[in-house]
């Protein structure tokens, strides 16, 4: 019989996979991997703020991720090089977060749990938050799917169709921040982007349409979650990194598959 902690871990991992699959497709299409990394790194600063002010880790990481995403959007809109801006902000946020954690008095912090995840320690309250966030992301993507696709294909076409690209980018920003907030306990701040990018990249040879790629990416993410948890139990390895390793193995296998036109 499966232990309760393992059932909770599977449910938490599947929830993150369901959200990361379709959102990861947009991250790949729009080449937002580094943007996602900057947002994920800000989560550590959010953890420090949450612990320092005695509030929910989810609220702290969501606020920090949103602040980072909006800061990147504003700075890149002022003519600064995107890669330079993302590089500065991503590593600065991580460094500030790690330093801030060291100043916390009377609080024991297991940094590895936030950097690499601790999915086996997910409790019922955290599981409810993770599923709530994942469902919110799926609802947002389902609601704005056609608009997001149009903006991704061509912003000029989107404007001609009466859409506002800035609003759609903001929607993606909110979805990304939500995924970061719910995934930090599953795979950690340093590996969140891998769960967005790797399944989507593995799904490309399997799909003939955007919807097909999103579904395939979700399937790969779920398979990687289950395979990674199995490997973690069998070989006594860290669960979060094991999930990403499983996703990478699936990506390597996908490279051998013929591409669909």
Description:
This protein starts with a helix and ends in a 6-residue tail after the last helix. It has one domain (4-190): Orthogonal Bundle (ABC transporter involved in vitamin B12 uptake, BtuC), CATH 1.10.3470. By secondary structure, the chain is mainly alpha-helical. It has helices spanning 4-29, 33-52, 57-76, 82-102, 111-116, 124-143, 145-153, 155-160, 165-183, 192-203, 210-235, 239-255.
Could you give a short description of this structure?
The protein has 261 residues and is mostly helical. It has helices at residues 4-29, 33-52, 57-76, 82-102, 111-116, 124-143, 145-153, 155-160, 165-183, 192-203, 210-235, 239-255.
Describe the main β-sheet briefly. Answer: none
What fold name goes in the CATH topology slot? ABC transporter involved in vitamin B12 uptake, BtuC
Strand content: under 5%
Number of helical stretches of at least 4 residues: 12
CATH top-level class: Mainly Alpha
- Give the low-confidence spans: none
Shape: globular
CATH architecture: Orthogonal Bundle
Mean pLDDT across residues: 89
């Amino acid at each position: 019989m499966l232990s309760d902690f393992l059932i909770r871990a599977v449910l938490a991992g599947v929830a993150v996979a369901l959200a990361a699959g379709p959102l990861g497709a947009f991250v790949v299409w729009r080449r937002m991997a580094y943007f996602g990394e900057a947002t994920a790194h800000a989560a550590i600063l959010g953890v420090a703020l949450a612990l320092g002010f005695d509030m929910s880790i989810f609220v702290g990481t969501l606020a920090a991720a949103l602040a980072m995403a909006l800061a990147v959007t504003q700075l890149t809109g002022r003519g600064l090089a995107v890669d330079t801006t993302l590089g500065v902000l991503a590593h600065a946020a991580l460094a500030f977060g790690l330093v801030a954690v060291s100043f916390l008095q009377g609080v024991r912090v297991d940094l590895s749990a936030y950097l690499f995840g601790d999915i086996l320690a997910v409790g019922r309250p955290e599981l409810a938050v993770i599923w709530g966030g994942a469902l919110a992301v799926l609802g947002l993507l389902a609601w704005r799917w056609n608009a997001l696709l149009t903006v991704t294909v061509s912003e000029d076409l989107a404007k001609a169709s009466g859409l506002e690209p800035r609003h759609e980018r903001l929607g993606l920003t909110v979805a990304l921040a939500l995924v970061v907030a719910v995934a930090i306990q599953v795979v950690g701040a340093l590996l969140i982007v891998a769960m967005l990018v790797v399944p989507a990249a593995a799904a490309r040879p399997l799909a003939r349409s955007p919807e097909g790629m999103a579904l395939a990416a979700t399937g790969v993410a779920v398979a990687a979650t289950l395979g990674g948890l199995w490997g973690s139990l069998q070989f006594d390895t860290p669960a979060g990194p094991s999930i990403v390793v499983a996703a990478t193995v699936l990506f390597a296998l996908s490279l051998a598959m013929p591409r669909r036109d």
